[in-house]
Amino acid sequence: MSKVRHTALVRTLTTTDHKVIGNLYFATTFFFFMVGGLMALVIRAELAAPGLQVVDNPAQFNQMFTMHGTIMLLLFATPLFAGFANALVPLQIGAPDVAFPRLNMFAYWLYLLGGLIAVAGFLTPDGAASFGWFAYTPLSNAVYSPGLGGDLWVFGLVLTGFGTILGSVNFITTVICLRAPGMTMFRLPMFTWTVLVTSLMVLIVFPVLAAALFGLGGDRRFGMHIFDPEAGGVMLYQHLFWFFGHPEVYIIALPFFGIISEIVPVFSRKPLFGYLSMVMATVAIAALSVAVWAHHMYATGQVLLPFFAIMTMLIAVPTGVKFFNWIGTMWGGSLTLSAAMIWAIGFIKTFLFGGLTGVIISSPAIDFHVTDTYFIVAHFHYTVFGTVVFAMFAGYYFWWPKLTGRMLDERLGKVHFWMLFIGFHTTFLVQHLLGIQGMARRYADYLPEEGFQTGNIVSTVGSVILGASMIPFLYNVWKTWRTAPLVTVDDPWGYGASLEWATSCPPSRHNFDRLPRIRSERPAFDLHHPLHPDGSEDETTGERARDLEVLTGVLDGVD
Hints:
The protein is mostly helical. It is 67% helix and 0% strand. It has helices at residues 2-13, 18-47, 58-93, 101-119, 148-177, 190-222, 233-251, 254-268, 275-289, 305-314, 316-330, 339-361, 364-370, 374-404, 410-437, 453-468, 470-483, 523-528, 542-547, 549-556. Helix 2 packs antiparallel against helix 16, helix 3 runs parallel beside helix 14 and helix 4 (101-119) runs antiparallel to helix 5 (148-177).
């Protein structure tokens, strides 16, 4: 038995199967998610009352929020997109694997190694990096933040960023070159479209982050004086970092928009409303995201406020198109409130609130008053947590039977949702009020007379509920692995649209024994439901597809 387990472990760690690599990303990102969540609980416990209750000194608190932000954004949310992309993109386009299987595995190992190096700062004498996940200079240089923890942070993130770049090259090549016959660009599932656009964004902005990190590392270890304040290096670093940082928000948002766009039609029993406009909105969000980076630099007084305010407001338009189309898909549909659908609806509600507060702080006049307060913390968590975590669990409950061959328990999935939904809003809704009252972020303590304790107690209670919501999910996974029956059909939901629902659960090593005819953006639905209820043929491409013939031909010219 031990030899069998050893062989299985070696096979898993050396595999080039995109599905297994996707599972490795899922397991690793969830591990980092739990670690980052524990750090968040420490932060909330510390802020529940004035004084230092949990940490020994403010420096330890600084390490906690620095590594919490780093882990959640760069070691959880960003590589999670690679996990879903690995698991699903080849299946959705009818490919046997990704274009570069060995490079795919190499990218994963770079991510894992870089993440462990960044977190290993806690093992050094001075502790982990403590200058914030954004590492503003001169605070992050060797004078104000000495110690090996900061160096490990820089080097670890360089490795993970390199892995992300290599993975994105792989995804782009896979989508462009390995599509099945009949899978034109405008028959791609929405999730695959978002992965393609996101990967292109990675190639634009991650090299800029790498340049900033190399410069920061050179300053810290070799005295290169790249970001010296006397030479304007402080502003240079902020421009470089936020040119990466704001598109990064959409790098971790767009793939999860794609996940919701896959789930809502299935449980609404309708095709996706406005497929073409969804594609164009995805492209527009990506294009606008690289023009709004100085939105984070209003308070510096050195950016053109009207331009960046207008561009920040403008990006709400294509995002609003997506909301309109999700609602349009559900409108008049035959809704099934499965666990996956409830998570998708929770995503829509939560991200909508985060988007609205984003429009509010796009105004410089308001941003000046709430910048670096808990209003920004609340907005950011509504935007990022509301996107990534809600859509992640929606995707897990939706694709779990496809990837594992077993169904997660629906009842436990709904208990999990309501615990997390209530815990999340209890934690972060009150932080908007704390920010308006003037509570500054990144502070380990506050005075009793400032009046922040009640809001912080509410927020801390919510964080405990939020943390406890992981218990039913972990129990659900364990119970499913132990006792759930095997799925014996290709499409356990009955109305799957994209190609992954036209193969077995789980798929074979090379995904498909045979491919169905692809004549619309819903090939699996066409296979399982060749006729409409009235007996007429399914014409999902219809007149719209004919209108797109020229544009499709241009895009397919890259084949």
